[in-house]
Amino acid sequence: xxxxLYLTQADHGREITDEELDNCDAEGGFKYELVEGRLDVSPLxxxxxxxxxxxxxxxxxxxxxxxxxxxxxxxxxxxxxxxGRRTRVEPxxxxxxxxxxxxxxxxxxxxxxxxILVIEVLSPETAAKDLERNRDLxxxxxxxxxxxxxxxxxxxDAPPLIALRRRxxxxxxxxxxxxxxxxxxxLPGL
Length: 190
What we know:
Blueprint (H helix, E strand, L loop, with lengths): L5 E2 L10 H5 L2 E2 L3 E6 L2 E6 L3 H20 L6 E3 L4 E2 L6 E2 L3 E4 L20 E6 L4 H13 L6 E6 L9 E7 L2 E7 L14
Parallel strand pairs: 1-2, 9-10
Antiparallel strand pairs: 3-4, 5-8, 6-7, 8-9, 10-11, 11-12
């Protein structure tokens, strides 16, 4: 019998397999992601961050209920696997078009589904990860059509939205300031 790993923030950068990460115990208060076969440990978000995510998830859930042909599942805490790489990251929110909602959840694996939209709520502690690392990683996932970043560094109450839309081999970016409207072509009528 093998001993289960116990991960802490001190394990940041440690080489680890996907299987080891799936079957470990971990110190609470941190997010554990796999990037190029190494553990990336970051602090879990605090309440203001969580409130922004919850508000956006409620909006996307309502949209999904009214437009299941466009969006059929919204998830907090999903995993996004980057094809051909030993990398899986966990966006704050992920939205799916073809999630197998007809299957029992125990039969669905994150590795087998892929979102069309990923969303991160940026804070000072996660700025580099969300603006640089995740921007590059999400571009490598063909199903992801848009990547939204809510920049809360100035305000949690009215953060600007950085909307990245897939264009060829890159992203085109648009910043939507508080009070401006954004009608994403990906989600008609939102």
